[in-house]
Write a structure and sequence with these properties.
The chain is α/β, with parallel strands linked by helices. Helices cover about 40% and strands about 15% of the residues.
C-alpha cells in the first residue's frame, strides 16, 4: 500500500484510476480545481470503493499552478508517488487559446515537479497522449515513432515529456512513466462514473452517446473519403478501466524496479472506424443512432493505432475489454446519467 498524489483525480480518466487504486489498497490525496469536473465524481468513486476503501481518498481543492495549493497537497500525507492527470485536453481550444494550454499543461507540470523536488518525491506517472505522434508515417505506431505534434495541445504534452526526461538526466533516483494514451472511452460497468464533458463534446464517444440518449439530434461523421476500409477515420479505442489498470501496473513497476524513465503506448492495438463504432453503439443501446456523413474535420488523420507490445511486456498488462464492452459500459453511464453529473456552470 502506498500513499499517492493524484492530480486531476476528479476527471474522466482520473476518477476511474482513483477507484482502481483504492481497490488495489492505496491511499490517495486528490488535487483538483474542478475546472473540468465535478466533486460528485469523487463522491461516487468513494461510494463504489465501499466503506473500507472509500475513506482512503482525501480531496484538496486547488490549482496545480499554485505552489501554496501544491504544498497543501504534499503536506496532507507523505506522498510516495504522483499520478499526474491534471491538464487541459481539447485540441481546438488549444489552437484558439495556446497560452492557457502552455500555462496549465507546462507551467502546471513544472510547478508540480518543483514541489516534488522540495519534498523528495521522485516517482511520477504522467498522462501523455498519442496526439504527439501527429500524422503518423505508418500504423501501428511504436514508441520509437517520430514525435511531431501538430497543435499546441500536442506540443505541450511533448514539452512535458521532455521536461521529465531532463529531470531524469539531472540526477539519479527519478522513476518516471510517460504513458501515451490512444483514445480513452467507455465507463465503469456500474454506470455510476463516466465521461462528462462540459459544453458540446469534441470527441466521438461522448457526442455519440449524447445523440443516443436524445440530448443531440444527430452525429456528424467527419469524412467518408479517408483511405480506410469504409472511408471513415480509424482509431484505437481503449476502455477507461483498462487504462486505469495500466496506471496501477505502471506504478507497481516503477516502485518495484530501479529508477528509470519508461515511455509506453497504452492502446489496444486494434483500429476501429467511426461507422464500426456507431454500429457497436447501436447494438448496445438497442436503437438506431442518426448520423450524417459530412466533410473531414481539419487536423484529423486517417488512422492511428497503437503498437502496445512494449507496454504489454514491461507492465505485464494488456487491454481486456473490447468495443462491445466499451459501448455497453458507456451506455450504462449515459443512460443512467443523461445530464452527466449535473450542472457545472458551463
Ligand atoms: P479531464 O478534463 O476529465 O480531467 C482533467 C482533470 O484535471 C479535471 O478534473 C480538471 O478539473 C483538472 N484540472 C485541470 N486543470 C487543473 C489545474 N490547473 N489544477 C488542478 N486540476 C486541474 O481529462 P481526462 O480525459 O481525464 O484526461 C486526463 C489527462 O489525460 C489529461 O492530462 C489529458 O491531456 C490526458 N489525455 C487524455 C486523453 C483523452 O482523450 N481523454 C487522451 C490522451 C491524454
Ligand atoms: N469524429 C466524428 N464525429 C465527431 C467526433 C469525432 O466523426 O463528432 C471522428 C473523428 O473524425 C475521428 C474519430 O471520430 O476519426 C475520433 O475522433 P475523436 O475526436 O474522438 O478523437 P481524436 O482521435 O481526434 O483525438 C483524441 C483526443 C486527443 C488525443 C487523441 C489520441 O481528442 O486529444 O484522441 O489520444 F490526443
Amino acid at each position: 500500500m502506498s500513499q499517492l498524489l493524484i492530480t486531476g483525480g476528479a476527471g474522466f480518466i482520473g476518477s476511474h484510476t482513483c477507484l482502481v487504486l483504492l481497490e488495489a489498497g492505496h491511499r490517495l490525496v486528490v488535487l483538483d480545481d474542478f475546472s473540468n469536473s465535478s466533486p460528485e465524481a469523487l463522491r461516487r468513486v468513494q461510494e463504489l470503493a465501499g466503506p473500507l476503501a472509500g475513506p482512503r481518498l482525501q480531496l484538496i481543492e486547488g490549482d496545480l499552478r499554485s505552489p501554496a495549493d501544491l504544498a497543501q497537497a504534499f503536506a496532507a500525507a507523505p506522498i510516495e508517488a504522483v499520478v499526474h492527470f491534471a491538464g487541459l485536453k481539447a485540441v481546438g481550444e488549444s489552437v484558439a487559446d495556446p497560452l492557457r494550454y502552455w500555462d496549465v499543461n507546462l507551467s502546471g507540470s513544472r510547478a508540480l515537479l518543483a514541489a516534488m523536488v522540495q519534498v523528495g518525491c521522485r516517482t511520477i506517472v504522467f498522462s501523455s497522449s498519442a496526439t504527439l505522434y501527429g500524422s503518423p508515417e505508418s500504423v501501428p505506431i511504436a514508441e520509437t515513432a517520430r514525435v511531431a505534434p501538430v497543435n499546441p495541445y500536442g506540443y505541450s504534452k511533448a514539452a512535458v515529456e521532455q521536461m521529465l526526461a531532463d529531470v531524469c538526466a539531472s540526477e539519479p533516483g527519478w522513476r518516471v512513466a510517460r504513458l501515451r494514451y490512444f483514445n480513452p472511452v467507455g465507463a465503469h460497468p456500474s454506470g455510476r462514473i463516466g465521461e462528462d464533458p462540459g459544453g458540446i463534446p469534441n470527441n466521438l464517444f461522448p457526442f455519440l452517446s449524447q445523440v443516443a440518449v436524445g440530448r443531440r439530434p444527430s452525429l456528424q461523421v467527419f469524412g467518408s473519403d479517408w483511405p480506410t476500409a469504409d472511408g471513415t477515420g480509424v482509431r484505437d479505442y481503449i476502455h477507461v478501466m483498462d487504462l486505469a489498470d495500466g496506471h496501477r501496473a505502471a506504478l507497481e513497476v516503477l516502485m518495484a524496479e530501479p529508477p528509470q524513465l519508461l515511455t509506453l503506448n497504452l492502446g489496444s492495438g486494434r483500429g476501429q472506424s467511426v461507422l464500426e463504432v456507431v454500429a457497436a453503439f447501436e447494438r448496445a443501446c438497442g436503437s438506431p443512432v442518426p448520423y450524417d456523413l459530412v466533410p473531414r474535420r481539419p487536423g484529423d488523420v486517417a488512422a492511428t493505432v497503437a503498437d502496445p507490445s512494449l507496454a504489454e511486456r514491461r507492465l505485464a498488462w494488456r487491454t481486456q475489454r473490447d468495443l462491445e464492452a466499451i459501448c455497453r459500459d458507456g451506455w450504462a453511464w449515459q443512460s443512467a446519467n443523461p445530464q452527466g453529473y449535473g450542472p457545472r456552470g458551463d
